[in-house]
Structure formats: C-alpha cells, structure tokens
Amino acid sequence: MNPDEYESLPTTSVATNMTAGAIAGVMEHCVMYPLDSVKTRMQSLTHMHVNDTIISTMRDMVRSEGLLRPFRGVMAVVAGAGPAHALYFGAYEYSKETIGRFSDRDQINYMVSAALATLVHDAISNPADVVKQRLQMYNSPYRSILHCARHVYRTEGLRAFYRSYSTQLVMNIPYSAIQFPTYEFFQKLLNKDNKYNPPVHMLAGGAAGAAASALTTPLDVCKTLLNTQEDGAGKTTGLIQAAKKIYRTAGVMGFFKGLQARVLYQMPATAICWSTYEFFKYILTEGARGAVWSSSSSTSSEAAVEKPKESDKKQLSDLRYVLPVSAASAEASASSLIVRGGAGQSSGGDRDGGRRELPAMSGAGIYGAMSYNTMHSNDANITDHHHPLRRTN
C-alpha cells in the first residue's frame, strides 16, 4: 500500500476514531494548559485589570504561587478530555458519514455533525471544566481535584456541575460549527490529493481554532463566571445573569477579556489536536489494513502454489491419447500392411498395427501428430488406388 493514500483508507471504524480522539484531546489540553490557566485568570471578575497581559498574568502567577501553579487542575482535564474527545470525534465522524449518504451539501453536513458531537462532548466535559476552573482561580481554597469536587457537591449539589452546560452549548455549538467547516475548507484547499499531510493538518487545525475561539470569546467569559461563581456560591444561575454582571463590572470590553490568551491557547491546541487525531487515525487504520492485507496475501500465495499442482495432476491423469506416433512410423506400418496383404496375411487386427496408446504426449509428439492428421484430413477425398497409404487388393 502506498503510505500516501490516506483518504482511501477505511475511516468508518468507530473504535479507531474514538481512540485517536481521546489521545488528541489529552494532548491538546495538557500541552497548552498553562495558557488556559492564564485565560481563566484574565477573565476573572474580581481581578480584572485594564493593563493585564498574558506575560504579566503568567509572571504574577508564578511569582506569588509557585512554578507549577499554571498546571494546577490539569489532571481534571486528563480525566474529562479523554472520554469527552473520544465521543466527540467518534460522533462527528459517524454523523458525517451517515448524513453524507442522504445529502451532498458538505458544509451543512459538517455543521450538523459538529453540533451533534458537541452535545455529547459537553455532557462529559462540563463537570471537569467546573473543577478545573475553580482550581485555576486566584486564591483557590481547594487542595486537590477530589477536594474541590466533594466540596462543590456538598455545598451546591449535583446541579452545580452542569450550571454552565446550556451556556457551554451555546458557545461550543457555534464554536464547532465554525471550527469543523474551517478545518475541512483548508484541508480541501491545501490537500487536494487527499493525502496524509501533517503540516496541512496542523495549519488547518490552527486556523480553525483561531477563528472559532475569537468569535466565541464573549460566551467563554460568561461560562467562566458560571463555573467559578466568584460572587458567591450559586448566585449566578444563567447566561443572561452572567452577561449582566460582566457588563456592569467591566463594560463591553469585559466580554473580550482574555481574547488574546484564548486565541493563543486554542490555535496551537487545535493544531495539536487535529494533527494528533489524524496521525493516530492514520496509524491505527494503516495497521488494521496492513494486517488484513498480509493475511489475504498469505492465503492467496498458498492457494496460488497449490492450485497448479492440482491442475497438473488432473491434466496428467487425463492426458492419454490414441494417436500415430509420427508420419514415419505410420508409413512403415502401411508398407508392412501392403506386403502382408499381398501374401494374404492381413487381418482386422493388423490395420491397427501402426497405432499405440500413449500415456502422455510431449510438445514435439503432439506437434508431429497434429501435422500428420492435418495432412491426412486434407487428402481425404483422394481415391484409394492413388493414396500411397491405402492397402491394395
């Protein structure tokens, strides 16, 4: 198989898509997690500053809270991103293939498939986001992931883990509806041969992540407030209430706090996610195809070796002809018949004296026999007294 024939490989395996998606999700969030922590800090209502930048926020975080502070809560992402992205990509690929059977409008197909995938993804990732963002906040009172999860459950109930679910859907459905078509657009533009091309996958993923994250930042700011509940446990209950509080606190520009950090986080993160996903999908699919082809080739080779033997055996058993050996022997037999006929010694059995049964015929023997028969058949209309091989009375 040509390793470049990527798109011709089967991609309908749900297990392959889910495995590749899980690995891609974990890689995406873990590698870029410090920038995600910076973005959450910059979106905080209690610590909004006009001159906040990515570098100043990161520097203050490390100076005041330690070198590893930007990675706090990363294990919540590992626990949530793996299964969430597995179902995310699995649902997207399955939906895209299914809808494609009934509609040839690619962009609509991508958007609908992305929306369906988001519904599944957010149902799993939302509780992990709540725990992660509470651990990322300034002066977080939680010691660990389990401590945070238990405290939130005891004080606010199970509903607290899904308080921002509707907001996250409102944000992530358009986010995915922008991301997936943008990715597919750049794939078709830059990868016209439909080959496995890591640089194109990274570029298309980065462009898709940058566009989607920039356009959905205001909703992300509202989601952060709903997840962290900085103004008190359970006081902010919905998207509209969160938007009002952000506007009263920081005005219109408050909805774009952390925009640069979000774009700088999502652009490489999405590039890593898509390139990792395509890589593992390619590796897993190629391995499965290679195993099938290897088994098929082995079976075909064995069959090819055995078949000629059976065919040869059959031909050898059937190859028994009763033909004149050659023209010379036939003439000698005819001469013998003429002499003995004159002496009155011919008989019915003597007429077959020039014939014998052959167990097999070589190429030369068959050729000679065919030549003699052809000559004999061409002289079939010659009268008996002119034919040199006829017995005279």
Architecture blueprint of SSEs:
Elements: H1 14-31, H2 33-42, H3 54-65, H4 74-100, H5 106-136, H6 145-156, H7 165-190, H8 198-215, H9 217-228, H10 239-250, H11 259-318, E1 321-323, H12 327-342, E2 356-358, H13 363-378
Antiparallel strand pairs: 1-2
Mean pLDDT: 76
CATH homologous superfamily of one domain - what is it? Mitochondrial carrier domain
From the coordinates shown, what is the CATH architecture of one domain?
A: Alpha/alpha barrel
Low-confidence stretches: 1-11, 301-308, 313-330, 332-393
> What strand line-up does the widest sheet have?
1-2
- How many angstroms separate the termini? 77 Å
Order of helices and strands: HHHHHHHHHHHEHEH
Structural class: mainly alpha
**Using DSSP, what is the number of strands?**
2
Overall helicity: 55-70%
Global morphology: globular
Per the CATH scheme, the topology name of one domain is Mitochondrial carrier fold
Number of helices, counting only DSSP H or I runs of 4 residues or more: 13
- Tell me about the largest β-sheet: 2 strands, antiparallel
Percentage of residues in strands: under 5%
Radius of gyration, in Å, reads: 42 Å
Q: Class of one domain, according to the CATH hierarchy?
A: Mainly Alpha
Main location: mitochondrion
Protein name: Mitoferrin
Function: Mitochondrial iron transporter that mediates iron uptake. Probably required for heme synthesis of hemoproteins and Fe-S cluster assembly.
Organism: Aedes aegypti (Yellowfever mosquito)
Explain how this protein is built.
Residues 340-360 are annotated as: Disordered. With 393 residues, this protein is mainly α. It has a domain at 13-283: Mitochondrial carrier fold (Alpha/alpha barrel). The chain has 13 helices and 2 strands. A two-stranded antiparallel ribbon has the order 1-2. α5 (106-136) crosses α7 (165-190) and α7 runs antiparallel to α8 (198-215). The longest helix is centred in the last third of the chain and has 60 residues, at 259-318. The relative contact order is 0.11.
